[in-house]
């Protein structure tokens, strides 16, 4: 606990936990000290629950970006009994922002695809901060098509601020490759489960996000643009990022309400960064359940379900537009 960097709204929790650690470290504690420890433990739990049940959208962004939050490589170690990494896109190279490979989740063999950011500077440079080039999305798609040949389900972990926006990526067709992935993923004839484990940023996220079951961790977010980017466009300064975050409605609760995600996976009390193993256990249960529910569907049912799922997104806006058009037609008549 003490090695974690507290976020601004966590400071009171950390202060209380530090005092609790000091009391628990006392040799031969008195009955009064034992009673104080018991009460303090209850208070720490109460404070965590109260704070994390009332986080703002901007607070959730900070949790999703926490440097100690479990990333794809952590989950590979905690979730899978086996993992054999596959490299390269057979054209340009091996984009380390996206990791792919055969994996085994209990008795279920699958193809795994996940975005990796890295924690220290060396890891972040190796994985390009989780921002993939076109070859990363090409690698992901080729491994999905390989999975389809062997009738293996696919699991995708989404955690990126966005696709890499550099000149080289644009020259090699970044936008085209993401659009191509969207089309081809909609046609892959095997179950696809997608989970947003941290940041789900724009096309960089949706490039591996077309799935039959789309889930999100409780304190992750999934958005068409980052709060800073939105603030820069609308308010001309990123200092308004907190207002942009609230306006974008991209938290797990909002997304589930809108029907964009199918499931919100609860995080341990205080966030996934506090207990990687407990988070991995909850995530494993969710994946197993989703894969079981999809395994009984035929190829035709699977593709139709996937198509209908994404067609329904935005139906309320379409209905409003239709109603307005009908009113205008009636008034003009």
Determine the fraction of residues in helical runs and give it as a percent range. Answer: 40-55%
- Count of alpha and pi helical runs: 15
Overall 3D shape: globular
Number of strands: 8
Class of secondary structure makeup: alpha/beta
Q: Approximately what portion of the residues adopt beta-strand conformation?
A: 5-15%
- Spell out the CATH superfamily of the largest domain: 2-enoyl-CoA Hydratase, Chain A, domain 1
What can you tell me about this protein's structure?
- It is a single chain.
- The chain has 333 residues and is an alpha/beta fold.
- It has 2 domains: 8-54; 63-313, 2-enoyl-CoA Hydratase, Chain A, domain 1 (Alpha-Beta Complex).
- The protein has 15 helices and 8 strands.
- It has helices spanning 11-24, 31-52, 57-64, 72-79, 121-126, 134-149, 167-171, 174-185, 202-206, 227-234, 241-248, 252-258, 276-295, 299-311, 315-332, and strands spanning 82-86, 98-105, 108-115, 154-160, 192-201, 213-217, 221-223, 263-265.
- Strands 1, 2, 3, 4, 5, 6, 7 and 8 form an 8-stranded mixed beta sheet that branches.
- α9 (202-206) links the parallel β5 and β6 (213-217).
- α10 crosses α11 (241-248).
- The longest helix is centred in the N-terminal third of the chain and has 22 residues, at 31-52.
- The N and C termini lie far apart (69 Å).
- 38% of the residues are buried.
- The model has no long low-confidence stretch (mean pLDDT 92).
């Amino acid at each position: 606990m003490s090695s974690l960097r507290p976020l601004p709204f966590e400071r009171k929790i950390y202060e209380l936990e530090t005092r609790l650690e000091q009391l628990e470290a006392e040799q031969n504690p008195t009955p009064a000290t034992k009673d104080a420890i018991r009460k303090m433990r209850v208070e720490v739990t109460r404070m965590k629950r109260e704070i994390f049940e009332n986080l703002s959208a901007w607070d959730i962004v900070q949790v999703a970006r926490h440097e100690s939050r479990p990333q794809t490589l952590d989950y590979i170690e905690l979730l899978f009994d086996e993992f054999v990494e596959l490299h390269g896109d057979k054209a340009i190279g091996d984009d380390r922002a996206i990791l792919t490979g055969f994996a085994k989740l209990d008795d279920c063999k699958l193809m795994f695809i996940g975005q990796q950011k890295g924690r220290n500077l060396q890891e972040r440079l190796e994985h390009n901060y989780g921002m993939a080039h076109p070859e990363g999305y090409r690698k992901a798609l080729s491994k999905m098509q390989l999975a389809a040949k062997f009738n293996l389900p696919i699991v995708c972990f989404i955690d990126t601020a966005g696709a890499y926006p550099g000149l080289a990526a644009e020259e090699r067709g970044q936008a085209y490759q993401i659009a191509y992935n969207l089309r081809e993923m909609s046609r892959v004839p095997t179950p696809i489960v997608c989970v947003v484990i941290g940041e789900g940023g724009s096309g960089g996220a949706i490039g591996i996000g077309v799935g039959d079951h789309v889930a999100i961790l409780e304190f992750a977010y999934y958005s068409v643009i980052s709060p800073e980017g939105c603030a820069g466009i609308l308010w001309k300064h990123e200092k308004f990022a907190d207002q942009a975050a609230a306006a974008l409605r991209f938290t797990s609760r909002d997304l589930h309400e809108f029907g964009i995600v199918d499931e919100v996976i609860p995080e341990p009390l205080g966030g996934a960064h506090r207990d990687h193993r407990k988070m991995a256990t909850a995530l494993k249960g969710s994946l197993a359940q989703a894969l079981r529910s999809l395994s009984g569907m035929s190829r035709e049912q699977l593709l139709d379900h996937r198509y209908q799922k994404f067609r329904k997104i935005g139906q309320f806006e379409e209905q409003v537009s239709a109603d307005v058009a009908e009113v205008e037609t009636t008034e003009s008549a």
